[in-house]
Amino acid sequence: MKDEIGIGIVGFGTVGSGAATILFRNAELIARRVGSSLRVKRIVDRDVTSDRGLALPEGVLGTDLQALMQDASIDIVVELVGGCEVAKRIMLDAIDAGKHVVTANKALLATHGEEVFAAAHRAGVDVGFEASVGGGIPIIQSLTGGLAANRCVSLVGILNGTSNYILTRMKCEGQDFQEALAHAQAAGYAEADPAFDIEGVDAAHKLAIMVSLAYGTPVTMQDIYTEGIQRLTALDIRYASELGMTVKLLGVAKHHGESIEARVHPTMIDSTAPLARVDGVYNAIHVVGDAVGDVMLYGQGAGSLPTGSAVVSDVMDIARNVRQGVRGRVPPTSFHMDCRTPVRIRPMEAVTARYYLRCMVPDQPGVLSRIAGILGDHAIGIASVLQQARREGQTVPVVIMTHRASERAVQTALRTINGLASLVSEPVTLIRVEDQEP
Fold it and tell me: Nearest 5 degrees, angle CA 33-CA 37-CA 42?
């Protein structure tokens, strides 16, 4: 058994400094839990002068990546540089050197995860990526460990704190999207270029990873239908509240036997549902297993120490294996590599749901009946209608809540409605509704 396990960290930014802080600050506790001491041998970063608020031992921080890779005393390499191509090269080089790897890089895994996992399998090393989804929320270990005996019926989550913060401001403060986004940027929750967050890309990366683990099938970002929050308006958020609903950007996965739904988009949910009460920058993931039933995981989805906590949990888990001289005890893909089978991702047009439709129409007799007729022609039933008091000669919003219908039918009907300039003054706003209706 090894008394000391060497750690190398590549990338000393927000997450890297958080992980290093935990490894040094809680070194005694970690050693007691693992049974061996975990020693940070080298940290590599291009910036070796900025103050991270952590006093490092002499010689630990440097710029020489090759020296880290060639250091035989380093058992585990932690990749925290971000991006894809450079990070992938670091991961594969570490694996080729026979070192175990840990990463927080969801974009890398959602794009090149299969290549990384295959390389690790061939080399007989472990891969940890708890921090890639949900920050400090232990969803990866839950899917690969605690919930592994279950067939995953569904998995629904708030996976991006920036978008959730924006939607919270829009609901609670009545702000429009641009105002809420500016507030998120001023508070440091949104980047100067927030595209990955507000367009749903970040959430789709995370959902791809979880679907791959939950269902034992290779999934990439390209398999996930993705729609962001940038077209939502304060008017839609207000109407949702009137309907007893809350709008969240959700990642949704559902098992249908021979196929899986996997999608990210703004979604209306009942305001009494647990996910509806998750506000600000917090994340939450609701898993339904066939044996365990409902499981809800909630916590901070980003940040130096919460994400660093997830990184160190992976380091500790792998260190336990290193101490015992075992490898590959839990496959990183949750299923053994030769037991994974491709499962068809259901096309978005085949998904069924209820729908919120907001139509901006001229206040004239017969307009609503024409819209209802088009919907009826496509077998789309109307559950309820909200219509403001008449404003003759003006454009007014009409909100329609449908019964469950197919995405294909709804999109076909909307193409007809949107093509009639005399009927609507702008494209109809569509928000899907997630509920328990059969």
Answer: 130
CA dist., res. 143 & res. 125, Å (int):
20
Q: In 187-302, which residue ranges form alpha helices assigned H by DSSP?
A: 195-198, 201-215, 234-242
Q: Alpha-carbon distance 163 to 195, whole Å?
A: 10
* Average pLDDT, integer, range 198-223: 95
The DSSP element (H or E) to which 299 belongs, if any, is strand 293-300
| Inter-helix orientation angle 367-377/407-418, to 10° | 140
Concatenate the DSSP letters of all residues of 160-190 into one string: -HHHHHHHHHHHHS---HHHHHHHHHHTTSS
Q: Which of 109, 105, 438, 110 is nearest to 262 (CA)?
A: 110
Tell me which residues are annotated as active site: 206
The single residue listed with the structure tokens 């291009």 is 46
Range in 98-112, 197-211, 381-395, 411-425 with the lowest mean pLDDT? 381-395
In the chain, the largest separation of any two C-alpha atoms, in whole Å, equals 83
Residue 130 corresponds to which amino acid?
E
- Interval 94-153: pLDDT, tens: 999 999 999 999 999 999 999 999 999 999 999 999 999 999 999 999 999 999 999 999
The CA distance from 135 to 343, in Å, is 28
CB-CB neighbours of 271 under 10 Å:
14
Q: Are 337 and 401 in contact (CB under 8 A)?
A: no
Contacts of 138 (CB under 8 A, 6+ apart): 130, 297, 310, 313
Express each pLDDT in 249-260 by its tens digit.
Answer: 999 999 998 899
- pLDDT at site 392: 64
Q: Is 331 left (phi over 0), alpha (psi -120 to 50) or beta?
A: beta
What percentage of the chain reaches a pLDDT higher than 70? 98
